[in-house]
Every structure is written in C-alpha cells, then in structure tokens.
Amino acid sequence: MTEGAQQLATIETAAARPRGVITLALLLIVGLLMLGSLGVGPVRLSPLTVLGALFGGGGEVEQVIVQQIRLPRAILGLAIGAILGLSGAALQGLLRNPLASPSLFGAPQAAAFGAVLMIALGLADVRSYALPVAAILASFVSVFALLAVAGGNAGMLLLILAGLAISSLAGAATVLVMNLASNPYVALEIAFWMLGSLEDRSFHHVMLALPFIAIGALILFSQRHAFRALSLGEETAQSLGVDVGRLRLLVIIGVALGVGAGVAVTGTIGFIGLVAPHLMRPLVGHDPAKLLLPSALCGAALLLAADIAVRIIPSSSDIKVGVLTSLIGVPFFLYLIVRERRSLGGGMA
Amino acid sequence: MSRRVPLAVLALLGAIPQAAAQPLPRIASTNVCTDQLLMTLADPAQIIGLSPYSRDPAQSFAAAEARRYRLLSGGAEDILMLKPDAVVSGQYDKRATRELLRQQGVRVVEFDVVPPSLDAIKQQIVAMAALVGHPERAAPAVARLDASIARARAMAAHNPIRVLPLWRRGWVSGAGSLISLLFAETGLVNAAADLGIASGGFASLEAIIAARPDILLVSDGGDFAEDEGTALLLHPALERFYPPSKRIVLPERLTVCGGAMLADALDLLVAELTRMSR
C-alpha cells in the first residue's frame, strides 16, 4: 500500500510541469474564441458594435442579435465542447485506453435516439425537459451496455467494435423512429440530429442543457484522484481505497448527463471527446487527474472554433458543425489507430 | 412552358363533350393537389383512388373528405389493378411511375401543381372539370376565386406592407411562389428580396431580424414545437419582434396547391390584414 502511495506521489511530481501557465493560456484562447463566436454571423457587425450590444448599448436589433442569438450559441459551444472534452478524458482515464471517447462508444447517437423518440411520440415539445432527460437515459444505457458487453478490462479492439455496433444501431433506430413519425420534413430533421448544429439556439436551450452538463462535469471532476490511482492498475487502485465498480458507474452517469443534455439541444457532435485529451497529453503529461481540466478547456476551444468556422466558410446553406468535427476527428482517429496498431493487434491475440 | 399544360389537357379532352352519352370516366389521382381538384369537381363515384398524402390535414384542404376514398400507394401497381380511365398527376411526381403507367396503356394527365399565375389556376380548374365530364362545374369554382381576388384587390394598394413568408426551419418563399401570387393580389410586398432570397431559400434568424419585415406570415400560430424546424419560429429573438399580433397565420393546406382553396387563402389574408390595420 505504501508502495502504491509512493508511486502516486511520483506521478504527481513527475507531471508537475508549468500547468498553471497552460491552463491560463487555454483560458485565454477560450475567452478569445467566445468573443470571436459573438462577432461572427450572417449579419456583419463590427467588434465595437458587438461589445456595445453585449452590454446593452446600440440599437435594439443589434442587442437582440448579440444577446439572444449569438450569446446562447457561444455559451452552448463552450459548455458542450467542455463536457465532451472532459468526458473523453474521463473515459480514457477509466478504461486506461487512449481510444475511449463518447462518440466512439455510441453515446451521442443513443442520446439522439432518446430525444427523437420523445418527439416522435408527440408527448413533448422539443423545448421541454423531457428531451434532455430521455437523451441522458438513452446515453446512460448505451455506455452501460457497452461496458457490460465489453467487460471491465476489455481490449481496445473489443471496445471499438462494440461501440461501432451500438452507434450504428442507435443511428438506424433514430432514422426509423423519424420515418415512422410521418413528419413530411423528415430529411431536414434527420440531418440536424445526425450532424449537430448550434445555429439559432436560444437561452431556452441553454437552460435545458446547462444544469445537467454542470452536474455531469462536477461528478467527473470529483473523481480525478481515482483516475490517477487507477492509472497504476486496478489492484493498486483498490488497495488505495478506490471502489472501481462505483467509479465506473459514476463516470457513466457523468458522461451520460453531459453528452445526453448536449445532444438534446444541438444534435450529435462527435470526436471532440477523442481529440481533446490527446492534444493535451503532450502539454500536461499523462497524469489522468491533471488531464481533466485542460481537456475540458481544449474541447471548448475546439467546438467554439469549429462553430466559428462553419459560419465563415462560404456555402449556400449552413454547414452542420458535426460535419466539421467529424472531418477533423476521423482522420485523427485513424492516426491514433496507426499509432496504437501494436496494442490493437495484441488485443486480438 | 407550364402555361401550355392546361391547354394541352383541353386539347386532349376535345372528344369528351361529344361522348357525353358514355359513362363518366373513373379517375385516380397520384398528387395531393390533383386530389383536391378532383374532389371539388368530380362525382364521388368517379374517384377510384387518391394519393398517399390525400388524408394529411396539414397538406390537404380536403383531408377529411378524402377519407371516403381509397388510399393509393403512390406506386403503379395498385393503379394498374384498378384500371382507371385516366390518372391525374403533378408534373413533379415520380417520373418512373408515370412512364410505367403510360407503357401499360393507362392515360396519364399531368397538371402543373405550381402554377405561374392565378389565371393558370383557373385554367386548371376548367381543364379538370372537362376531364371529369362536368365542364359546367368549373364556373362556380372559378367565380369563387374571382370574388376573393376582387375583395383582395379592393383592400389592397393602401400601403405596401413588407411581409416575410417564413416556414419551418427558416425557409422563405420568394418570387414565383403561390404566396407571392397571393401577395400581388393583396398589394403586399414579399420581404424575401430584402434578405437576398430570389425564388426561395433558408434565412437565418439574424438576417430576418436585421431586415425587419413589417409582418411575418407563418403556417402555424401554435406554441407547440413538434420538431426543431418549428422550434425556430418560436425563438425568443423572433417572438420579441414578432409577437402573435405581428404574425399572419395562413395554414399550409391553403397554400400548397393551386386550386379553389386559394379563395379561402385570399379571404383569410384579407381578414388578417384588416385586423392588423385596426
């Protein structure tokens, strides 16, 4: 036991890089991207007009555009990007597996299914709390099922295959439910739920998602020391007093709360949870506890940047932000597979 | 080109008046717009089947009446089994189905379901009445449309109000749409051009608010967002500038098709404008 505690202390000090500087830099980047997100849109407003309108100056139209259309969009980008980055880092810490992430586990797809089911049943308005609750339950079931099917110490290959199966199933179920609901505009609605978008959200959406995201983030963040202990191996962690079964359940709940609530208001946005922790590891080291906050900030920066990009790229109709995150995320995923090829092969043997 | 379609229909039908002694033709429809023309003008016994959307109250003005008739699959199979004397369809319906029917010797008559003018709509009513063997039934339907047009024109021209026809997910109908035809009769200006939208396109909330049209024309006045597309119209930013008092509600079933129901659409538009000018 003392040996484990010593190892733990070594990890902590070994990772003691200038983390404060990195966190500050990330905060600065996120802050700038927030401002950028407020400044970009179909209507051209000068930075000064935007700042004035944000604090209640300028014309009524400018105020409404900045305060009621762009601000909720930026807040949702920040919160959802952060919870996705945090979820990815938490899952990677829990499973000690660099390819773990919500989207590869089918959690967003399952959440979309939950939300769409509520709409199709005609029980709830799309702006009611029934949507995030259903999405959270569905993503909880999907991640729980995945970990149950693949087992606690599953190899990467097994997790990826099981995740692929679950996300395909959830995607097909989503489309089927929408077809059965006989909505004549089903194609456009499917595009929203499959590809995700932050366009024209309101504070109503922020109120729907933010409480759940905050609780999910608190749960995941509160387990940071357990992740660190777990990085020494399950037995060592248990000897240090970590209840691995309980930790697993808490992580699933935290991820489901965050991802489910996010998907319920923006549709499926993938791969941020996979990419963010990998970008941060070279900067803050491999201590999974110290990876959580930077990964959340990095996730927020990634989603804000992607959401700014979809507004800048000239196109005849709006580009869905999920398209962009997948375009960046999938090649990154393939690169990770190439890098981890050896251990993937080992998983098969 | 589309103007010629009704004339072609008339030409095709030249033989019908002489053949009045023969039994009236039995007709199937494969389009929600021809469904409604058919129900307005034909005898119930002549209608042997209607299109798959005929009973959708959101799209068809005569959805309730349509329940009395057989619902077709939209494909060719069941039509072939029913052996109709003619099939009426829209020019944008599935081409493969129409061609298959023609190959099998079925007479298919196409109607322009997005007519370019109100005159073209009247011609279609006349054409359909001739096709079903009741040419005399066209006149009352056309007269009803003419009366509504006259009422609309009477109240128009006071002040050019800029109205933005805004559908789900921010779709805006532009020039050439049925909505624009109705606007022209009522002296309204379609604000789509202010948003840089020509014949129709999606508008962002920001652009709508920045362009500040006087009034929004929407298809649903409810407060229930059944999907993301309708939720957009209930966005707080839009509701702030366009509360219900600044929205005209014109149900979609009145404006999807060119037909007799446009008379109701015009009357409703006039009533709403009168309410607002008070």
TrEMBL record, chain A:
Q: Where in the cell is it found?
A: Cell membrane
Its primary localisation, in coarse terms, equals membrane
Q: Which key words are in the record?
A: Cell membrane, Membrane, Transmembrane, Transmembrane helix, Transport
UniProt cross-references to InterPro entries, sorted A to Z: ABC_BtuC-like, ABC_transptr_permease_BtuC
Recorded superkingdom: Bacteria
Which regions span the lipid bilayer? 21-41, 74-91, 103-123, 129-150, 157-182, 202-221, 249-279, 291-309, 321-338
GO terms (molecular function) for this protein are: transmembrane transporter activity
Task: Tell me the membrane topology, using the record's own terms.
Answer: Multi-pass membrane protein
Write down a Pfam family by its short name.
FecCD
Task: Show the GO cellular component annotation of the record.
Answer: plasma membrane
Q: Which CDD domains would you find in this protein's record?
A: TM_ABC_iron-siderophores_like (cd06550)
- Family affiliation: Belongs to the binding-protein-dependent transport system permease family. FecCD subfamily.
State what protein this is by name.
Iron complex transport system permease protein
TrEMBL record, chain B:
Q: Which domain of life is it from?
A: Bacteria
The UniProt entry, under InterPro entries, shows: ABC_Transporter_SBP, ABC_transptr_periplasmic_BD
Entry protein name: Iron complex transport system substrate-binding protein
Domain Fe/B12 periplasmic-binding, first and last residues per copy: 26-278
Give the keywords, sorted.
Answer: Signal
Which taxonomic lineage is given here? Answer: Bacteria, Pseudomonadati, Pseudomonadota, Alphaproteobacteria, Hyphomicrobiales
Q: Which SUPFAM superfamilies match?
A: Helical backbone' metal receptor (SSF53807)
Q: Which residues cross the membrane?
A: none
Q: Which Pfam families match?
A: Peripla_BP_2 (PF01497)
